[in-house]
Design brief:
Elements lengths: L4 E4 L3 E8 L13 E7 L1 H11 L4 E8 L2 H13 L2 E7 L4 E9 L5 E8 L6 H10 L7
Parallel strand pairs: 1-4, 2-6, 4-5
Antiparallel strand pairs: 2-3, 6-7
Length: 136
C-alpha cells in the first residue's frame, strides 16, 4: 500500500523524570514528576505528519513487548501505517530523560533495542512492496 510520506526511524518508550536540577554523577534526587510515553524522533515525526493530514507509513523495528504495543497503539491512534518488523529476540527501545524544571535543560540516555538492528534490507523489502517513489 503506497503512502505519500514514508519515514524510517526509531520508536522508544520515553521515561521522563522532572527534578529541580539535574543530578550529579552518583547522586540521587527526589523528582517532582514522571511520565512514561511514546517517543523516538522518527516515530514522533510520523505521528505529527499523520495528525497534520498526511498519509504516513513508518518503517522501524520493535520488540514483541509492552513498549512495542505502546508504539502500535500510538500509530493506530494517529493514523500512521506501521511498516514495522516485530523482533522477538530484542526488546523495544527505551530512553531515560532527566528534565531540569527551572530551565528545561535535559540529559537523555537511549537504548535503541530492536531499532538498532534495522538494516538496508529492511528498507529495500518495504520499497519492494510499494510502487517506486521519489525520495528526497
Amino acid at each position: 500500500m503506497p503512502h505519500d510520506i514514508v519515514i524510517l526511524g526509531v520508536f522508544v518508550a520515553d521515561a521522563a523524570f522532572r527534578c529541580a536540577r539535574l543530578p550529579r554523577l552518583g547522586e540521587t534526587l527526589i523528582g517532582t514528576g514522571f511520565a512514561l510515553g511514546p517517543g523516538g524522533k522518527g516515530s514522533n515525526q510520523a505521528v505529527a505528519a499523520a495528525k497534520a493530514g498526511g498519509d504516513v507509513g513508518f518503517i522501524a523495528r520493535i520488540g514483541e513487548d509492552t513498549f512495542g504495543a505502546m508504539g502500535l497503539a500510538t500509530w493506530a491512534e494517529a493514523g500512521v501505517t506501521p511498516m514495522v518488523i516485530r523482533d522477538p529476540a530484542r526488546a523495544t527501545g527505551a530512553a531515560g530523560i532527566f528534565i531540569e524544571a527551572a530551565e528545561g535543560r535535559n540529559a537523555i540516555v537511549i537504548s535503541p533495542g530492536a531499532a538498532a538492528a534495522i538494516s538496508l534490507a529492511d528498507v529495500e523489502a518495504e520499497a519492494g512492496r510499494s510502487p517506486r517513489r521519489r525520495w528526497w
